[in-house]
């Protein structure tokens, strides 16, 4: 690859989510689906909220896999929510803020998922706290992301090349230690654990 190939390339974060294929679910979706399945056994009317669910790819997969699962998807990007509403049925789409889920009740959902969203925020506590708040007392919150094994939190900013506007958050890295200390201080959290996730194949760029 030469430099001209790279400079001609275009990238739009929103377009990636809108145009993402729903025909073949991401491997992470399948792994999460297995965990969801174990959580909803013997639950006659289970409910799931996906926080930062973009254009609804994960909730779409969940709707195909679990016919009786009541699904809600929340995202801050209005264009993604509007697109998802037109393309996906059997899912309630909510335009909202993961850090302040106005309109979603305390202890409303059996399962709350947040996949790759936490790194967008400079402080992980508001979004994680809201996930815990809207989850039922005996429910489960499933969060995926990168967590530093060393006791170091890092804030990382990005912008499109040539853009003179402000930098955006999106690839922040929080440590297991910081997250652990936060969870240990919450009365509603009875137990929690980190699980290592390894893809069994290489990803294309």
Name its key features:
9 strands, Rossmann fold, alpha/beta, globular, two-stranded parallel ribbon, 7 helices, disordered N terminus, 205 residues, five-stranded parallel β-sheet
**What is the CATH architecture assignment?**
3-Layer(aba) Sandwich
**Rg of Cα set:** 18 Å
What is the strand tally? 9
Largest sheet, in brief, is: 5 strands, parallel
Shape: globular
- At CATH level 3, the topology is Rossmann fold
User: Which superfamily, in CATH terms, is the homologous superfamily?
Assistant: Vaccinia Virus protein VP39
Give the strand order, joined by hyphens, for the main sheet.
3-2-1-4-5
Instruction: Provide the number of structural domains.
Output: 1
Instruction: Kindly state the percentage of residues in helix.
Output: 25-40%
Give the low-confidence spans: 1-21
Helices and strands, with pairings:
Elements (H helix, E strand, L loop, with lengths): L2 H6 L4 H7 L7 H13 L7 E5 L5 H9 L4 E6 L2 H10 L3 E5 L13 E7 L9 H10 E10 L2 E2 L8 E2 L9 E2 L4 E2 H9 L21
Parallel strand pairs: 1-2, 1-4, 2-3, 4-5, 6-9
Antiparallel strand pairs: 7-8
Structure description:
- 31% of the residues lie in helices and 20% in strands.
- By secondary structure, it is α/β, with parallel strands linked by helices.
- The radius of gyration is 18 Å and the shape is globular.
């Amino acid at each position: 690859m030469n430099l001209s190939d790279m400079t001609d390339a275009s990238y739009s974060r929103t377009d990636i989510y809108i145009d993402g294929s729903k025909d073949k679910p991401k491997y992470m979706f399948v792994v999460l689906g297995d965990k969801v399945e174990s959580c909803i056994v013997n639950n006659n009317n289970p409910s799931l909220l996906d926080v930062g669910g973009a254009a609804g790819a994960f909730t779409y997969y969940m709707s195909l896999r679990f016919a009786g699962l009541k699904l809600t998807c929340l995202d801050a990007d209005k264009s993604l929510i509007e697109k998802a509403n037109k393309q996906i049925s059997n899912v309630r789409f909510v335009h909202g803020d993961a850090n302040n889920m106005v309109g979603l009740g305390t202890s409303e959902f059996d399962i709350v998922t947040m996949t790759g969203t936490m790194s967008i925020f400079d402080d992980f506590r508001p979004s994680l706290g809201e996930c815990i708040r809207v989850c039922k007392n005996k429910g489960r919150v499933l969060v995926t992301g990168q967590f530093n094994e060393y006791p170091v939190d890092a804030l990382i900013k990005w912008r499109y090349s040539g853009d003179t506007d402000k930098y955006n958050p999106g690839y922040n890295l929080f440590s297991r230690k910081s997250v652990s200390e936060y969870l240990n201080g919450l009365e509603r959290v009875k137990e929690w654990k980190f699980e290592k996730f390894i893809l069994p194949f290489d990803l294309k760029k």
